[in-house]
TrEMBL record:
Any GO molecular function: ATP binding
Family statement: Belongs to the amidase family. GatA subfamily.
GO terms under biological process: translation
Function, in words: Allows the formation of correctly charged Gln-tRNA(Gln) through the transamidation of misacylated Glu-tRNA(Gln) in organisms which lack glutaminyl-tRNA synthetase. The reaction takes place in the presence of glutamine and ATP through an activated gamma-phospho-Glu-tRNA(Gln).
Keyword terms of this UniProt record: ATP-binding, Ligase, Nucleotide-binding, Protein biosynthesis, Transferase
Protein name: Glutamyl-tRNA(Gln) amidotransferase subunit A
Entry-linked PANTHER family: GLUTAMYL-TRNA(GLN) AMIDOTRANSFERASE SUBUNIT A, TRANSAMIDASE
Organism: Deinococcus yavapaiensis KR-236
InterPro entries: Amidase, Amidase_CS, Amidase_dom, AS_sf, GatA
Amidase domain ranges (all copies): 25-464
């Protein structure tokens, strides 16, 4: 099966001109979702998607001008969409139906997008492979024996397989960027606060950000212009003008790029090193200057991240006690017995491991040794970035040290799974924006995409769009236009 890849911007244009109708685009996307079902990119299909599309067609007939007119999208299943199930990839919320819509999603709907599905994800966004999803792991469209990456694996796969041109994920330590790299699409983690978290189910509130996936830089830009910005419903959201579409075409001439020394060489696959090298040559040919920079705290990133993310998670997940929203165990008994039984049968192993780790790190006697020390490291990470940005406009690392790994390859070894995020977690600790750009292929077995990560200072998210767009043009769209050879019929096994 080959679904043709067309940008969201050109789809919106043809719908706005009346050449196509939203309802037809949505029907095509729903058909693609059906064909791709063996890859499990979605946890559920939005039942009233066609109705929503008719409403958009109606709005257009009434003369509204919409940047994403009629464009089908999917959103990660930890983003609330009114009237849809929002499971967070967990049995705990298997039957939870959202009574309201997340701001990020609402703004895209206001711009004309139609949500057709809720994407598969690691349970409560905890994971780097999608394998902790209670509904079965999404598979990589480039090779179904490989993981999609995670935790926003379903959102990445949906764009990679061209079911939809744009999707939303959430990124706490790499969950948008890493699956984007594994599936060959763009994945943006905006500056902390740039996109409202209202309606995003919390994992680690001081690190979580909603971010888009897209195949083309212009789609990322259009999505961010529609979605970013202050929201009275999220006290951590920032006031900043959106200039994403304006940033297209700005080029990289004179921009100073710093390759992060600690992320180069050892530990990276040859294909990732080759992608970095090619990126360096391309940037130089476009008139940018390229150097090297040190982020000494990179080696402490994973340790600090897990000592900050898991305490926040242990607190955020306390609400799933089987009393109000989440699954309640059949077993009766008093409050404690019922709650323990409900949590024991609701959560998977990874979520339980995180709750235990986080509770331990916060407990009296260990707080100073673990949580409070990690918070000090977090400050040092921010200082490292501040220093690096004195001499460079954009920093570069691999998104992941390697291409997609095999399903089951790391699932019994949590530490090696955690290490997959070595290049992405620092960005969340510092709150800065970063973008994974498709930058090459690993050709050792099946052809698999690899990504390069660009990191900008806080609120300079637009700069990342300029970089992506310049590289897209300079490579003649070689990497973004590459499509996986999805042979869905053979995926049933
Ligand atoms: N893989 C990381 C984790 O498991 C990051 C997850 C995320 O960004 N949501 O915590």
């Amino acid at each position: 099966m080959r679904v043709s890849r067309v940008s969201a911007v050109s789809l919106a244009r043809s719908v706005s001109r009346g050449e196509r109708r939203s309802i037809d685009l949505v029907r095509e996307a729903l058909k693609a979702a059906e064909d791709l079902a063996p890859l499990r990119p979605l946890i559920s299909v939005v039942e009233d998607a066609e109705q929503q599309a008719s409403i958009v067609d109606e709005r257009l007939r009434a003369g509204e001008r919409l940047a994403l007119a009629g464009v089908p999208i999917v959103v990660k299943d930890n983003l609330n969409v009114r009237g849809t199930r929002t499971t967070c990839g967990s049995r705990a919320l298997e039957r939870y139906v959202s009574p309201y819509t997340a701001t990020a999603v609402h703004r895209l709907q206001a711009a004309g997008a139609v949500v057709i599905g809720k994407a598969n994800m690691d349970e409560f966004a905890m994971g780097s492979s999608n394998e902790s999803s209670a509904f079965g792991a999404a598979r990589n469209p480039w090779d179904a024996s490989k993981v999609t990456g995670g935790s926003s694996g379903g959102s990445a796969a949906s764009v990679a397989a061209a079911m939809v041109p744009v999707s939303l994920g959430s990124d706490t330590g790499g969950s948008v960027r890493q699956p984007a790299a594994f599936t060959g699409v763009y994945g943006l983690k905006p500056t902390y606060g740039r996109v409202s978290r209202y309606g995003l189910v919390a994992f680690a509130s001081s690190l979580d950000q909603v971010g888009p996936f897209a195949a083309y830089a212009e789609d990322l830009a259009t999505t961010m212009d529609a979605m970013a910005g202050h929201d009275v419903l999220d006290a951590t959201s920032l006031q900043a003008p959106n200039r994403f579409v304006e940033a297209l075409g700005a080029g990289v001439r004179g921009m100073r790029f710093g390759f992060v020394r600690e992320a180069l060489g050892v530990g990276n696959s040859a294909s990732v090193e080759a992608a970095l090298e090619r990126t360096r040559t391309l940037l130089e040919s476009l008139g940018a200057t390229v150097g090297e920079v040190s982020l000494p705290t990179l080696e402490y990133g994973i340790a600090a991240y897990y000592l900050i993310a898991t305490p926040e998670a242990s607190s955020n997940l306390a609400r799933y006690d089987g009393m109000v929203y989440s699954r309640r165990a059949a077993q009766g008994g008093d409050f404690n017995a019922s709650m323990s039984a409900s949590r024991a049968e609701s959560f998977g192993d990874e979520v339980k491991r995180r709750i235990l780790m986080g509770t331990y790190a916060l407990s009296s006697g260990y707080y100073d040794a673990y949580y409070s020390k990690a918070m000090k490291v977090r400050r040092l990470v921010a200082n490292d970035f501040a220093r690096a940005f004195e001499s460079f406009d954009v920093l570069i690392t691999p998104t992941s040290p390697f291409a997609a790994f095999g399903v089951g390859e790391k699932s019994s070894d949590p530490l090696s799974m955690y290490m997959a995020d070595v290049d992405t977690v620092l960005v969340n600790l510092a709150g800065v924006p970063a973008l994974s750009v498709p930058a090459g292929f690993d050709e050792r077995g099946t052809r698999l995409p690899v990504g390069v990560q660009f990191i900008a200072p806080a609120l300079a998210d637009e700069r990342l769009i300029s970089v992506a767009h310049a590289l897209e043009l300079a490579t003649d769209r070689e990497f973004v236009d590459a499509r996986p050879p999805v042979e869905v019929a053979s995926l049933d096994a």
